[in-house]
Amino acid sequence: MGLLRALGRSVINLFAVTGRIGVFTGNGVFHCFSPPFFPRLVGQQMVEIGFYSLPVVGLTAIFTGMVLALQSFSGFGFAGEATIANVVVWGITRELGPVLAGLMVAGRIGAAMAAEIGTMRVTEQIDALTTLSTNPYKYLVAPRLIAAVAMMPLLVLVADIIGVMGGFIVSIYDFGFNPMTYLRSTWDNLEFIGFFSGIVKAAVFGFIIALMGTYHGYNSKGGSQGVGQATTNAVVSASILLLLFNFIITAIFFAA
Question: Which residues, including other chains, have CB under 8 Å from residue 116's CB and lie 6 or more apart?
Fold first, then answer.
């Protein structure tokens, strides 16, 4: 009976958390489309999410493209420009670009959102906003959701370009491939459906990252320890949901 009670509590807690996240998501999305709007806050979050994430996303992408080219050449034993270019452009645009960029942004931005909003919660600044007739969803959640959904596709676009460039650099300088042949093969193997699926994933990942960061920060409690726990939960939950929705979107686009 003790095992059954523990299992029942876990199931009830799961549904309770799912319900709270659903309500929070509905409120956040509603306030994204209802006035008043705060364009200055949205712009600040766009700079924070997009511009300041470029270094880590760029470094991740270029080394991923390099490693992908190296592993492809080593695994195939011998492969020409067309084969390596195909593997690199497909791998980066379909999967590695969106997923790795999403994970990097989740670790950087998701944690920052949870820590900032969590600190506001435990220091009662969110209660002060409510007292001043400022809706916390409108002021804290909606700008971050809008900015994340807008900027993640741009970050993934940059990651795709830099990742393919990383594969190009390794292929040209390590394998001695012909540059023009490699570039022509890359362009010929670039599919719109693969590129578009990566951009769709990026927008969904941006929404998930901002949602988990703001949700865990908004519901944090217990002082500094609670803020730290909220930060950890934001990154972990965003990363898991990111991988889950990556599978779902891939299945939608490419399932036979």
Answer: 217
- Kindly report, residue by residue over 188-230, the tens digit of the pLDDT: 878 888 889 899 999 999 999 999 999 998 888 877 788 888 8
Distances (CA, A) of 254 to 192, 248, 249: 13, 10, 8
* Residue 20: Cβ within 10 Å count: 12
The CA distance from 67 to 137, in Å, is 42
Between 23-27, 111-115, 174-178, the lowest mean confidence (pLDDT) is in 174-178
Q: Phi then psi for 233, rounded to 5 degrees?
A: -60, -35
HEC-encoded secondary structure of the chain? CHHHHHHHHHHHHHHHHHHHHHHHHHHHHHHHHCCCCCHHHHHHHHHHHCHHHHHHHHHHHHHHHHHHHHHHHHHHCCCCHHHHHHHHHHHHHHHHHHHHHHHHHHHHHHHHHHHHHHHHHHCCHHHHHHHCCCCHHHHHHHHHHHHHHHHHHHHHHHHHHHHHHHHHHHHHHCCCCCHHHHHHHHHHHCCHHHHHHHHHHHHHHHHHHHHHHHHHHHCCCCHHHHHHHHHHHHHHHHHHHHHHHHHHHHHHHHCC
CB hemisphere CA count around 90 (13 angstroms): 12
pLDDT digit string, tens, across residues 18-42: 888 899 899 889 988 888 888 899 9
Closest CA to 67 of 92, 37, 103: 92
Query: What is d(CA 204, CA 35) in angstroms, rounded to the nearest whole number?
Result: 23
pLDDT of residue 79: 59
In this structure, what token pair is assigned to residue 211? 């949602």
